[in-house]
Amino acid sequence: MLETEKQFTLSNYKLGLEYAREQDKNDPLSTFRDQFHIPKNKEGNDWLYFTGNSLGLQPKSTQKYIQQELDDWANFGVEGHFEAKNPWMPYHEFLTEAMAKVVGAKPIEVVIMNTLTTNLHLLMVSFYQPTKTKYKIVIESDAFPSDRYAVQTQLEFHGYDAKDGVIEWKPRQGEELLNIEDLETILEEQGDEIALLLIGGVNYYTGQYLDIKKIAELGHAKNCMVGIDLAHGVGNIKPELHDSGVDFAAWCTYKYLNSGPGSLGGLFVHEKHAHNKKLKRFAGWWSHNKSTRFNMRQPLDVIPGAEGWQLSNPPILSMAAIKASLDMFNEVGMDAIREKSEKLTGYFEFLINELNNDKIKIITPSNPKERGCQLSIQVKDADKNLHKKLTEANIITDWREPDVIRCAPIPLYNTFEDVYRMTETLRTLL
Ligand SMILES: *Cc1c(COP(=O)(O)O)cnc(C)c1O
């Protein structure tokens, strides 16, 4: 099928509950909803859950995966490192291939470890090497606070003033979205002073999916390192990290990857850096050559590729939850997930536009190529009450200051009927 035929333009959708139900009936992924625990309200009805971008729902299989490790710990104690059904010593390796597929990377480029902000810091230790004249860092003006604090404190750690060292890529006056031409201008004018670009691949607030390949090209043309925060990208869009050429990326797995609150994050280091032993880094015993790790009194011999950024032996219970999720993602594949996602979010957009109410406005790009599944609905006069009333109607969305309701229909467990009922409630409330 041609790419253009595959795109669901607004005119493909129809109004009415019947249409929504028909779409659910024809949905090849419809059976997956049943593989998740859907939270219920006091009356025992399913919530309409649209916050999988904040904390993904629990796959029913997760319990089994974690129970396996609890049993093996009970039965084997320390021997579980080798004797467990999934031996703990190489446990992270069981996740690598599936994780790499989800982000479009090679296995040597990916590892599951630590949490997102920790990983950003570790990656900046290696890829933010400022000099007296080239030390500035570009972030989005509306970067997630944790990323901003990480960048500010890295600058200060190296002895620079964060006020002077952070360059913000801002939307134009009166606009909400970022324009790549403005990044180009920043790099043309200040590229010689910029050491690093650290950009959210999908912005947490607007839902805008940026062209990370283009960002990498622009940054590299000015000898800047390029890192991407994929917290809102992983499991949502197909970032094709290897082909994008970005130097590094990091993400969490508890949003779109459904691995549970505070679960471990992922890290990507491009293959071109895999064997560079000159890169500075903070190391631990898990960075070291696996074959001599337990000889203990060895000089550091860093593992090539992403694994060489590990520090510690990892928490297996969290990894078990990630394995449960990745096994499901691998079974479905990101192509099928994206296909449904574009259709479901397109339908959502269609219904909101049909409400034709000037109290609300979608600020997320309408081009499916420039967004994931989230729609950010800006509410006029920042009327937070609308969000409150949605919650009272058992529709779970989130409010982000100053004036946005974020709403993410998740292709693995949200239905067309969910979206229909959500927008009908919105109609009543407006
Ligand atoms: C969710 C999110 C985080 C959270 O970081 P943790 O270290 O996992 O707490 C950071 N950055 C972005 C862009 C996020 O969306």
Give a structural overview.
Strand 5, helix 10 (212-221) and strand 6 form a beta-alpha-beta unit. The protein folds into 2 domains: 3-59 and 333-429, Aspartate Aminotransferase, domain 1; 90-330, 3-Layer(aba) Sandwich (Aspartate Aminotransferase, domain 2), CATH 3.40.640.10. It is globular. The protein is built from 15 helices and 13 strands. The strands form 3 sheets. It has a 7-stranded mixed β-sheet, sandwiched between helices. A 4-stranded antiparallel β-sheet has the order 9-10-13-12, with helices on one face. Strands 1-11 form a two-stranded parallel ribbon. Residues 1-6 have low confidence and may be disordered. By secondary structure, the chain is of the alpha/beta class. It has helices at 3-6, 17-25, 62-76, 80-83, 93-103, 116-127, 145-157, 162-165, 180-190, 212-221, 241-244, 316-332, 334-355, 385-392, 416-429; strands spanning 48-49, 110-113, 136-140, 166-169, 194-200, 225-229, 248-252, 265-269, 360-362, 375-379, 395-396, 398-400, 404-407. It is 37% helix and 13% strand. The chain starts with a helix and ends with a helix. The structure holds pyridoxal-5'-phosphate. Homodimer. Belongs to the kynureninase family. Keywords: Hydrolase, Pyridine nucleotide biosynthesis, Pyridoxal phosphate. Pyridoxal 5'-phosphate binds at residues 116-117, 144-147, 229, 232, 254, 285, 313. It catalyses: L-kynurenine + H2O = anthranilate + L-alanine + H(+); 3-hydroxy-L-kynurenine + H2O = 3-hydroxyanthranilate + L-alanine + H(+).
